[in-house]
């Protein structure tokens, strides 16, 4: 079974002020008084104990997570009542901040999952609403932002980043404008970095201690999450581009997944009429210590090209894994060849008390919000490719360099096929590594291929080619189906090719799939 953390945040150093621009139109930071810090600390203490030992009452929240979002028209009167509640508003400020830091034992863990549209959304709906609120703040539409934040947090109460933004908007509404406007002394240290046209600064300023308190860690994690969501929104991939590693996709590949760890982003593509179309764009968490996994327990997410295996429904898993999981084949044969090890790398959902987790929060898995994970599980098939990079390189479909690489490798595959057709042992030896030919694992595929190619008219169908390059070398991963009139069923193969120092491609792993 994969990772199981206690606290879903990565330990950070001393509290530092957030002073980076978080949007194209303005400068957004998170700010609270020391009294607010005390309330947050108390809430976090409760969350820490509850999250470390999930109770039955918490696990019961998973059913509520799949409930449809409350229509906005129903939540508007409630938002208006809260905004005009007078003395109760201050209590709401503290309550919102407490929920932002973590849902306490008495807070319902209900995630509003929007009704499924006919086509997959390009972005999580809850996230899109949060980004819209921030844009309203940047435009100084604070009343509109407050109302939208009230609606969002009422419908998705465990969206902690949204609760934190809502708490700051309430803080401004209750007369603390001297603390949140860019021109005031409190924000003077950051005002110079704000755009000339000004903007609302919101920052949580908590005194540093010898050891970072849970409050500090949680708030830092929420800031990181907000920053990553805004960064991904402002730096979306160019329209119509695709990751360069997808050289060629066969007809059986209906979807493809690509993860950009630097942006905390998972991109979902549909493969239609020979081309990829971006249909989903989701926030995702990776390992506590980042990426580039090398060994079991290093709390890192692997980098490479993998394929979806099992779909595990949520009821078969602890609540910690949310609505379910998709397994991937880490370590793949390239990982094994260069010495990487580990197991249990999944794409899975979030615990009931959290809409999402910090950007770096898992023990190596990829973690999504439950509505996004549910959509993914309903969409992708077994053997869907999953590309994980620190930073994706986007190219135009059939870009010149990519097309040359694909065409060049097709000639290599033709040589492999012709060598089998002619039963030419010398030519076959030239396309396989010596280590593979001498290994016990080679026997199964070699015997099946000998039987297939002993009959005439063998063709290669459903051909997919994926490229990968890292500091250990350059490889191609090939999925294909050898077809012959003499056999009722095709022979599905997965091959791993490595580029040698002399520039030749040789197979170091070959397996019959299924």
Features:
five-stranded antiparallel β-sheet; 17 strands; elongated
Question: Poorly predicted ranges (pLDDT <50, ≥5 residues)?
Answer: 5-121, 180-209
Distance between the termini: 23 Å
Number of helices: 17
What's the multimeric state? single chain
Shape: elongated
As a percent range, the share of strand residues is 15-25%
Helix content: 25-40%
Major β-sheet strand ordering: 5-4-3-12-7-8-9-11
What would a concise description of this structure say?
With 514 residues, the chain is α+β, with helices and mostly antiparallel strands. Helices cover 36% and strands 19% of the residues.
Q: Could you describe the 3D structure shown?
A:
Strand 4 (265-272) and strand 5 (275-283) form a beta hairpin. By secondary structure, the chain is an alpha+beta fold. The strands form four sheets. The chain has an eight-stranded mixed β-sheet, with helices on both faces. Strands 2-14-15-16-17 form a five-stranded antiparallel β-sheet. The protein has a two-stranded antiparallel sheet with strand order 1-13. Helix 1 (34-52) packs across helix 5 (87-101), helix 4 (72-83) packs across helix 7 and helix 14 runs antiparallel to helix 15 (425-431). The protein is built from 17 helices and 17 strands. The model is unreliable at 5-121 and 180-209 (pLDDT under 50). The chain starts with 33 loop residues before the first helix and ends with a strand. The chain has helices spanning 34-52, 56-59, 61-65, 72-83, 87-101, 125-138, 142-155, 160-173, 177-180, 188-191, 214-234, 333-338, 370-379, 400-421, 425-431, 434-437, 442-453; strands at 242-243, 246-248, 255-260, 265-272, 275-283, 286-287, 304-313, 324-328, 346-348, 360-362, 366-367, 385-389, 394-395, 459-470, 473-483, 491-499, 505-512.
